[in-house]
Amino acid sequence: MGDAASQHLERLAALPLVRGIRRLIQSEPDPEFCLRPDFIAGVQLLARHDLSFDICVYHGQLRAAVELARRCPEVRFVLDHVGKPGIRAGLMDPWRSHISALAALPNVWCKLSGMATEADPETWSREDLRPYIDHVVECFGFDRLMFGGDWPVSTLATDYPRWIETVQWATRFCSDEERRRLFRETAAAFYGLS
Predict the structure, then answer these.
(1) Nearest alpha-carbon partner for 80 in 177, 147, 11
(2) Per-residue pLDDT at 163
(3) Distance between CA atoms of 102 and 140, rounded to whole angstroms?
């Protein structure tokens, strides 16, 4: 870890298009993989290089993800795919409480993405997704919630226009300013894009 990882991150940070790191934790069989000391030490190095970390986990790994974000308060995190809740099975808990815990941490943002593939890919409806969307909007607000397309993985369950329409429908109560933040401004600010 240590110097070798720091040198590697320094090289990555020098690339103008690199804004952050994503390590797929979702495929790890150990639900507490991201709490290993060497993993935490590596993530903590990101702050020094002004790089963020994308948390890509299934809902059963969220408890550990909350603890990772707590142990790395100087690192900016974004939760991908709203933490991959068990939409297909209609599970809200403990996903709901873990999302609330993550949103309580000021260093965590959330991507509204990847939900159609967590529902039944053949029969999902926008109504199936609505309770999950409502919860992340309530928890993160529009200053820390950003739209994500999850393309091309999303094509396993939806096409891009249908996903956009679903998000627009679920957030139809929003003001124009809130919708701008959701679809553009929050991500631009988080990733330092102009």
Answers:
(1) 147
(2) 97
(3) 9
Which tokens go with 32?
Answer: 């507490």
Answer whether CATH 3.20.20.140 is correct for domain 2-191: yes
Find tokens 């139809």 and name the residue.
172
Helix or strand holding residue 138 (H, E): helix 126-140
Give me the residue spans of the domains in the chain: 2-191
Greatest CA span in the chain, whole angstroms? 50
Of 153, 152, 9, 23, residue with least CA distance to 77: 23
Question: Does the structure show a pLDDT above 70 at 103?
Answer: yes
The string of pLDDT tens digits covering residues 117-128 is 999 999 999 999
| Rounded CA separation 9/11 (Å) | 5
CB atoms within 10 A of CB 92: 16
- The residues facing 77 across adjacent strands are 53, 108
